[in-house]
Design goal:
It is a single chain. The chain has about 70 residues and is mostly helical. The protein has a domain of about 35 residues. About 70% of the residues lie in helices and about 0% in strands.
Amino acid sequence: MFQLGYVITWPLYVYYIYIDTHCAGPFQQKRIFIPDTTRFKVVFITILAITLAIGTVRFAMFVQSLQGGN
């Protein structure tokens, strides 16, 4: 059911984005705001993502060792 939902909704979402950004009226302009990406934020989020990924792997290894896995 989940995959069938993706087959239906994903093309509709892509079509919506196309209509929303390309088919505005002549006096209406679509403004697209880009978030602030300072160097500090990029470095912080990168380090956070790597730390959480390593923590997830270590937790999975710990759980596996408790279950008697190799």
